[in-house]
Amino acid sequence: MIRLGVPSKGRLMEQTFDWFAARGVRLSRSGSEREYAGRVDGAENVALVLLSAGEIPRELRAGRIHLGVTGTDLIREKLAGWRSHVQELAPMGFGHADLILAVPTCWADCDSLDDFASIARDFRAEHGFRLRIATKYHRLVRAYLSAQEVADYQLVDSQGATEGTVANLTAEAIADITSSGETLRANHLKIIGDAPIMRSQATLLRSVAAGDTDQVAAFAGQLGLAMS
Ligand SMILES: Nc1ncnc2c1ncn2[C@@H]1O[C@H](COP(=O)(O)OP(=O)(O)OP(=O)(O)O)[C@@H](O)[C@H]1O
Ligand SMILES: O=P(O)(O)OC[C@H]1O[C@H](OP(=O)(O)OP(=O)(O)O)[C@H](O)[C@@H]1O
């Protein structure tokens, strides 16, 4: 039996169901609205596993699911050396979001990453502690800032409502996902730099550890995908 891990709620779940339906495989939640059980019609030997999108990378790495749908941001953040754990089978064309660095709109002299680096240096000298960036994307933000040679900062963990941390005085800057930009605007924040830290979208991934390669390849073939 192939185990297929899919986000358990919200738009990501609905759009995943639509994506499979367009390829002849009907996924659905069974039981009551609150029960995390699922069924699969139109494919043999495939079991649906409903999971938090944030847990799907770990389940793929452990080989507890053969296939999984989640954002590429979560794969790269949660799996060090992700290429040795998962194979990307298909970008799915939804769940588009950019991981960005943002500062208060009122920081008039801060638009580029160079501006940010110099403000961070001055901040440390002036305040005696490093400028705080609130984020849940620790690995991606560290790697990005290190490549850009920004060093005078500290990360503050924020697992939600990250854009509120600046007004709440627990951080000076944030690194988070944005799509429409509305949450940033509502919290008086602006994006730094020309390009995002990374661009993400929902992706169908195969677990390297889970094995059963022939069965997984047959199912991928049914979906019209090649598995190299
Ligand atoms: N506003 C958004 N627009 C589009 N995609 C988004 C948006 N916010 C988050 N995402 C994407 O959705 C995916 C799931 O994110 P989220 O952090 O909500 O998952 P989660 O932590 O598993 O959620 P939960 O724990 O509430 O189930 C990520 O890949 C993220 O990039
Ligand atoms: O650019 P926008 O379209 O405004 O979307 C961005 C927001 O969406 C996500 O939050 P989500 O609603 O998933 O909640 P979270 O704060 O718990 O991450 C993300 O963390 C941003 O806060």
Overall description:
- The chain has two domains: 2-96 and 201-222, D-Maltodextrin-Binding Protein, domain 2 (3-Layer(aba) Sandwich); 98-199, Periplasmic binding protein-like II (D-Maltodextrin-Binding Protein, domain 2).
- The chain is 29% helix and 30% strand.
- The mean pLDDT is 96.
- The protein is built from seven helices and 13 strands.
- The protein has helices spanning 10-21, 56-62, 72-78, 113-127, 138-147, 182-186, 213-222; strands at 2-7, 26-30, 37-41, 46-51, 67-71, 86-91, 97-104, 131-135, 153-157, 173-178, 189-191, 198-200, 202-207.
- Strand 8 (131-135), helix 5 (138-147) and strand 9 form a beta-alpha-beta unit.
- By secondary structure, it is α/β, with parallel strands linked by helices.
- It is elongated, with a radius of gyration of 20 Å.
- The strands form three sheets. Strands 7, 8, 9, 10, 11 and 12 form a six-stranded mixed sheet that branches.
- Residues 12, 52-54, 70-71, 73-74, 95, 97, 177, 179, 200 line the site of adenosine-5'-triphosphate.
- InterPro entries: ATP_PRibTrfase_cat (IPR013820), ATP_PRibTrfase_HisG (IPR001348).
- This is ATP phosphoribosyltransferase.
- It catalyses: 1-(5-phospho-beta-D-ribosyl)-ATP + diphosphate = 5-phospho-alpha-D-ribose 1-diphosphate + ATP.
- Pfam families: HisG.
- Pathway: Amino-acid biosynthesis; L-histidine biosynthesis; L-histidine from 5-phospho-alpha-D-ribose 1-diphosphate: step 1/9.
